[in-house]
Amino acid sequence: MKQTSKAISVYLAGVLYILMSMNHPMAGEQKGESDLDRRVTELLGRMTVAEKIGQMSQVNADGDKIPGELRAALKAGEIGSILNQVNVDVVNEMQRIAVEESRLGIPLMMGRDVIHGFRTVQPIPLGQAATWNPELVQKGARAAAVEAASTGVNWTFAPMIDISRDPRWGRIAESFGEDPYLTGVLGAAMVKGFQGDDFSQPGNIAACGKHFAGYGASESGRDYNTTNIPENELRNVYLPPFKAAVDAGLATIMTSFSDLNGVPASGNRFLLKQVLRDEWQFDGFVVSDWASIEQLSVHGFTANDREAAYEAASAGLNMEMATSAYASHLPELLDEGRVSMAELDAMVADILRIKFRMGLFEDPFTDPSDYPAIANEGHLAIAEQLARQSIVLLENRNHTLPLAKEALGSLAVIGPLADDPYEQLGTWIFDGDPAISQTPLKAIRQLLGDRVSVEYVRAMETSRSRSTAGFDEAVQAARAADAVVVFLGEESILSGETHSRADIDLPGKQNELLTALHQAGKPVIAVILAGRPLTLGDIIDDVDALLFAWHPGAMGGPAIADILFGVEPPSGKLPATFPLMVGQAPIYYAHKNTGRPATPEKFTHMDDLPVRMPQSSWGFASFHLDAGYEPLYEFGYGLSYTEFVYSDIEVSDSKIEMGEEITVQAVVRNEGRVEADEVVQLYVRDLVGNVTRPVKELKGFQRIRLKPGESRRVSFVLGPNDLAFHGRDMSLITEPGDFHVWVGGSSNAELQTAFTLVAEQSRSSN
Ligand code: BGC
After folding, report:
1. Nearest 5°: CA angle at 54, between 49 and 57?
2. Residues with catalytic annotation?
């Protein structure tokens, strides 16, 4: 059956090629692809079963020596990929054994987690998402790819495009946040940055979209936990970023550790076959997560490794990471006919196809001298630019910021994260080098020069310390200074894989430190370095200004210093909602309306509830008695040193027909005194749907720069796909009806207009 459909698709591809070659300039590429299919088929035809299964095995090998057993396995052609080897000499030797000593000479995929930079660490992905700048994110991925490629790495396990709506989840740090559209745009940008236009060119490495799918919805934000996501929600929220990455040419996909609706992802035929292959026609390959095939049995989905191998292979999972269920059990599963040779061939062909596309058969070796120096000025500049644009200004009372350098005599710099080159790097920094880091303290001193005295007190040993022993010294420094900048937040180990938190307040005694500093009577500017949104409601009254800098990477120091002193105004916008209280999680702007939406009139805080309030005045709306129904800071929020005013929203037509585009425009004016960037955001609401639609959905954004007094008409085009959603029968549909549109500087945008989408006949009858 599969063979037949393959034959049909080869035939159709042939017809398409003839048609395209008549008038299409890219016809050569089609030819290249069919050559590639021929090469794959020819190679497959010469492979033994052991060699085929070998291609499906990925082995962890991070030592500086190649153990004898591994050497023998490489020679026997029993390994398709290595992970975690970054010593270029060892990489080259492994490739040499694979291509020169094995029978068929198939080169290796060398995988590594290149998550936010390589040696030059950039802001964590959640911070990169706060830039809302796909071009810059693409440049960052490019720089990371070039550095990684110079060590022989040819495959990164990034981008992570899991929608993350729960700040307790430690891996939210690795994600682009809560929104499918923003995550899709940035994920696609990263894929293009890693892979380039033609990923056989030097410096381009294969990307891996992960974790397919739904990992971010782990119950209670606890890592690896169960996920239950209705199919409609999965299709409208969790899958679109993966589709966007596939459309951008994504080479590989990693399955999630998690159980999705009772079927763990690594054995999930619906995800891996129906969605990925049948619906999306993905022709790259799928790798498991670390041991996630064997863990199918731990989930209770299979009884043993053999059944786990059967389920994973039957779902079409191409390559097993780190464990050997495939190597041990696929031979017998083939013998028994439970896995067919055609299925095996199809899985191996996907892997070979990527290896051919990557040009590995032409040259698998790496000569570091072909590459620019690692951590070169260009790469540092990109890391700094990403950090600068990622910083979000959350509060700025009485224009405390920017600090005027000229008016400042002395500055107190306080806190455990002010001068810690390691902690500012954040999670997943295998290859990062803290020696490259420029800390905020160092950068502030450099920027201020000798004229301003800078007194530094660490005050707490780590962000988690419960000792207040250093507080007095910090308060004294604060009293003696004209202003206080305090660097708080989370150490890097408090976010990332396995590192979820149930309480997302500032850890340790940080809140007390802030209160003590506030009482010193000087302006207090808090800069938070963290891997997730935190609950900051309790500290707001103790600070005059609040900057959220995420884990900003190696160049975080200069980026933060520039923002503090107004060299560049802040322009980051939140990619994830900041709750008021952790109990609100999961909390996100694109929620459904419910049948009883809360309004200010309907809500009474529990402190204001009279005793024995009559039931008739309860409000009967969807809120928490203590937290209300709003977050502390909404998605898309971020202040500037200037003020942007939005006006004159209009649509090109108040009625459009199915299939037509509509243009939405609004005027943005810089009414302040400094030139600055603003991220202009477009939101849409589909008022009625055959499944209920979110109250707002991001559908476009643009980062623009305006001089003081300058205004610009910003224009967005909404096409039919932008209004489409998966309906009750799961198909992608667009329905006639009314739509609201907003343009503004956050998801709380108020400037609104509307249009109606009509079925063709109803318009002509008008
Ligand atoms: C993580 C993946 C990662 C892999 C390899 C796993 O624990 O979940 O995201 O790519 O390890 O390091």
Report:
1. 140
2. 289
